[in-house]
Amino acid sequence: MHEEITHPFVQHKLALIRNKETGHKKFRELATEITMFLCYEALKEIKVEKVTVQTPIAEAACHVIAEDLVVVPILRAGVGMLEGILDLAPTARVGFLGMYRDETTKQPVAYYQKLPEQTKDGLCIVIDPMLATGGSTAAAIDVLKAAGARKIVVVCIVTCPEGLQTVEAAHPDVTIYTASIDERLDDHKYIVPGLGDAGDRLFGTR
Ligand code: PRP
Ligand code: URA
């Protein structure tokens, strides 16, 4: 299952982040802002519990978050979304999965893994700006499931039909939230129109 967040503020910021003239400082700020909006939607069903709060006037019946959240950025571009989700959920734990796409085969290569113990019981939120072929995201979900994770959602900034199909076929129980389902992949497996190489644009490496 997937959901495209079409809110005008998200789409406005997406127009800015796609622009090839946007430099890495602004790109990082926009990635943070877009992530907050996407995660606001992605986390709308998390567990809450009732509490009573004393206002200056009277008692108020309130709700507070009662879900253990584990945010899992896929290194390296996923780190560009970390600040945005932690602004929203500051007590979340963070696990890291290192993966890069082999330049020739375009297959994901795993090189690092450090997950918190709570991965089994919490809601895992995989963050990566680009879900292209879907290989990296599907492999990340494989790792999380092998670690015992039962509840997983994916938040990405841009994806495409091929990538959604791959992840949904492998993991039909995982919902994907995105700001855009773009047209297609090009011959180099880059998303068209996409926003280019997210890692390079975030960290100024090109
Ligand atoms: C990018 C992106 C995803 C992956 C998407 O990472 O951040 O992790 O490619 O492609 P896929 O859906 O076809 O697997 P990249 O390999 O460029 O590494 P980086 O984050 O270190 O730049
Ligand atoms: N990785 C990126 O950074 N961009 C793409 O379009 C595809 C993979």
Automatic annotation (TrEMBL):
Coiled-coil parts of chain: none
Cofactor or coenzyme needed: Mg(2+)
Residues annotated as domain Phosphoribosyltransferase: 6-205
Activity regulation details: Allosterically activated by GTP.
One MF term in the entry's GO annotations: magnesium ion binding
Alphabetical list of InterPro entries matching this protein: PRTase-like, PRTase_dom, Upp_B, UPRT, UPRTase/APRTase
Pfam families: UPRTase
Catalytic activity: UMP + diphosphate = 5-phospho-alpha-D-ribose 1-diphosphate + uracil
Residues noted as binding uracil in the record, renumbered to the chain: I191, G196, D197, A198
Keywords on record: Allosteric enzyme, Glycosyltransferase, GTP-binding, Magnesium, Nucleotide-binding, Transferase
Binding-site residues, 5-phospho-alpha-D-ribose 1-diphosphate: R76, R101, D128, P129, M130, L131, A132, T133, G134, G135, S136, D197
Pathway: Pyrimidine metabolism; UMP biosynthesis via salvage pathway; UMP from uracil: step 1/1
Cofactor note text: Binds 1 Mg(2+) ion per subunit. The magnesium is bound as Mg-PRPP.
Superkingdom of origin: Bacteria
Top EC class of this enzyme: transferase
E.C. no: 2.4.2.9
GO biological process, one term: UMP salvage
Any one cellular-component term (Gene Ontology): cytoplasm
Entry similarity comment: Belongs to the UPRTase family.
Function: Catalyzes the conversion of uracil and 5-phospho-alpha-D-ribose 1-diphosphate (PRPP) to UMP and diphosphate.
Protein name: Uracil phosphoribosyltransferase
